[in-house]
Amino acid sequence: MYKILTLNKISEIGLSELDASKYTYSSAIENPDAVLVRSASMHETTLAPETIAIARAGAGVNNIPVADCAEKGVVVFNTPGANANAVKELVICSLFLSSRKIAAAYDWCKSLKGEGENVGKLVEKGKSAFAGPEISGKTLGVVGMGAIGALVADSASSLGMKIIGYDPFLSDDKIKAFNEKGYDITSDLEDIYAKSDYITLHLPLNDGTRGIINSDSISQMKDGVRILNFARGELVDNKSLLDALDSGKVAAYITDFPTDDQICHDGVTAIPHLGASTPESEDNCAVMAAQEVSAYLEKGEIKNSVNYPNAKLPEKFICRTCLLHKEDESFSVKSEAAAAEAGAAISNVFTASKKGMGYTVIDTDKPFNTDSLGAIRVRILNK
Questions:
Q1: Which CATH entry fits the domain spanning 316-383: 3.40.630.180, 3.40.50.920, 3.30.70.260, 1.10.760.10?
Q2: What single DSSP character describes residue 236?
Q3: What is the pLDDT of residues 225-284, one digit of tens each?
Q4: DSSP character at residue 246
Q5: What is the CATH number of domain 84-270?
């Protein structure tokens, strides 16, 4: 029986993907084989020796010590694309929020309560303070053309916006497909800054992207640019942003990750991390996370891991030896030699690496000794 620890409330639709005859799960289970988590921080969590997998029901994995997990042979999964539509819808909503000052106008209207018959006159007198431009015909810069960014681009384009996208990891086929839609795909962020009336961020947080929106990048933007951040708060340097809002260089900032000094600041519309907070998104993420964990626990397959390579393996096997190790081009050769020495007949070999970590899988008719191989973790599965 596999034991699964849930660190957040995980959708029951997702948990139902786990075969009740093989799995037990709870928020208090001890020595789990795997962990399902949404936003709870695991940086201070001491993992049990039995824990071999963590699945994040969402795309970002900043709440998980990914590198440390890799060193311990713990495979970390995420669920890219499962919450993309939910985030896209909120981003499209925020395009209007950034233009028409709807949130500020709503708050101002509440201040008219009690004015009786004067409300109509006050509305007509005060409405000019909340005027704003239409988005049709304007240019939207999409920084990160992955699952969410691509959906945002498609929806914004259908609303009449011109699209310029940036993503250094796009394949030539992807670039061609976007170009065929009329999108301008650039390899230079300066093009985004110079041409965009609106900029929306859809990229991961890492050492290379932290504070990517700063005084220097803002200085290259159009006056009155509107910035949307539904990726990670730390992508934006806070002081640079607030200074630009005060000067009018940035007309509006919509964020799903507000800080104390952003809240109630003129020009900021703060949303409490609602991007993926829809029942559909939570179900989709939980289903994908549960499927990833079960495929790894039962078959050794890896899909959507952020610290180990993906591995699509044959459905049928007798004895499957899964070895997690440091990247080593000769590891599979040494593993095959160890199997041959034990007289084990090999039916399939898989090996791949990612970010310095390797994963080698050997299917045989019987187990073999792996002690001399120096693997971080060894798992032997039997059908």
A1: 3.30.70.260
A2: B
A3: 999 999 999 999 999 999 999 999 999 999 999 999 999 999 999 999 999 889 999 999
A4: H
A5: 3.40.50.720
